[in-house]
Amino acid sequence: MRFTLGLALAAAAICATSQAGELSPVEQQIVAAVKAHDGEAIALLERAARINSGTLNLKGVRDVGALFRQQFDELGFKTTWVDMPPEMGRAGHLVATRTGTQGKRILLLGHMDTVFEPDSTAPLWQLDGDGVRGQGVSDMKAGDVAIIAALRALKQVGALDNTTISVMFTGDEEEAGNPKAVSRGPMVELAKRSDIALSFEGMVGDRNGQPRATVARRATAFFELEVKGKQGHSSGVFGPGAGYGAVYEAARILDAFRQQVPEQGLTFNPGVILGGTEVAFDDANSKGTAAGKTNVIANTVTVKGDLRYLDYAQRDRAQAKMREIVAHSLPGASATINFRDSYPPMAVTPGNLNVLAAYSQASVDAGLGEVGAVPAEARGAGDIQFIAPYIDSLDGLGASGSGAHSPSERLELASVQRAAIRTAILIYRLTR
Hints:
By secondary structure, the protein is an alpha+beta fold. The chain has 2 domains: 5-217 and 346-430, Zn peptidases (Aminopeptidase), CATH 3.40.630; 219-343, Alpha-Beta Plaits, CATH 3.30.70.360. It contains 11 helices and 19 strands. Strands 1-2-6-3-7-17 form a 6-stranded mixed sheet, with helices on both faces. Strand 8 (204-205) and strand 9 form a beta hairpin. The longest helix is centred in the middle third of the chain and has 20 residues, at 137-156. 48% of the residues are buried. Mean pLDDT is 94; it is low at 1-5 and 7-17. Keywords: Hydrolase, Metal-binding, Signal, Zinc. Residues 1-20 form the signal peptide.
């Protein structure tokens, strides 16, 4: 049985029933410990942010990993670095584990890479009022630091003893290495040995400022459209001999997609288009070249795009309609389209909603307010989608910010402490 998007929004109703409770004496100590070490958490975040760790900057990712690995070593976790095959061009992942027999087995997810490669001109760390601007400060080095701050507070009060907690910080979340069976295989194995997964992408708020977590995410896929036409003198375009050429055919197809394929929760975006008489595209670097002349009918168009959907039934409907449109070519042209799945959907489940309800209750009890649910179509892809089919999952538990993936990326510094408090209380309750 598939739970609809409407049920995701029903999580807000679940949370709305929360009544403010009291923190236990131990939980009060946990909150105090988070607050007492807030300065250390921000200092750690600054150290991490000042290291460029674009996905393709393998040394930078590993340097951030070494910094965080030291923190987990100090917390008594067993740490390992999981290397990826050299041909994948990815730095690898940091894994930290501890085992016990008490309560739920928890898996915490973060990532160390950012979209900012070494040639980026975006600042690394620039204070801005009550926040900071920097590369990956909100997406998601602050989430990583919130995990560490929560675990540090739990250790300080003795609440880590006899618990089973695994942490995985990936080095390629922004551009996952292929094949994904390899790059995400270790994560799936950890999930199969866990009961609940919590991921720390940035937390978002609604228009009224209520924090919202993620119980569902849309799947992502790619489409590749290849269009061919008859090259010839431009004076013959539209004629019976030359036909319409590749560019007009590509325009027809894309506009038909826009008009005929849309449905709620589905998006498809042609991100790159190249057309002319000579076209070349470099998949590895997502760059291409095109050449042609205004008096020559283009014979080739290449389109690269993405497709995002709520579930596999929606994917199949969209792909069938897109193939139908492609097949009805203009005279003198032809086209083919291919699809490639990337991230699986994270479906709304009763288990995910239960975890959200528990998280919201922890937030209410700590005086931080209720936490609602983000609609699936409001979030992009995330690592948690690879493991959500196996265990109850919740995402978007990190710090709050804005402008992710842009030179103006900004973090609200106080939100790191809030994220750590909510997380520490939830973990404490789940592991009792």
